[in-house]
Amino acid sequence: MTEPELAFLNVENLGIRPKEPVDHRVPIREILKMVVRLPSTTTLSKAAKVVHDRGLITFKEGSEHMLELIFASEGSAEFDLRPTLPLVFRGGSKGVV
What is the CA radius of gyration of the chain? Predict the structure, then answer.
């Protein structure tokens, strides 16, 4: 596998209201950007190129596979879940870290 699998779920049309609280101790308020880091971006699929070109997901070359979520929060924050998960949350006022 050279890139993550992409899927789309249109939950707005299902009429489901979120039951989980949106205010919690983790200061994540809004996801502003998703960055997928891959060893190479030269062989991205057509679907990956479309979501990249539309600004939905940014694909960047990196030394390891990783998902980075940039979010808006009340203060600066970083949650690095590596090496357990290849996932990093970064945030700050309007996503500025």
Answer: 15
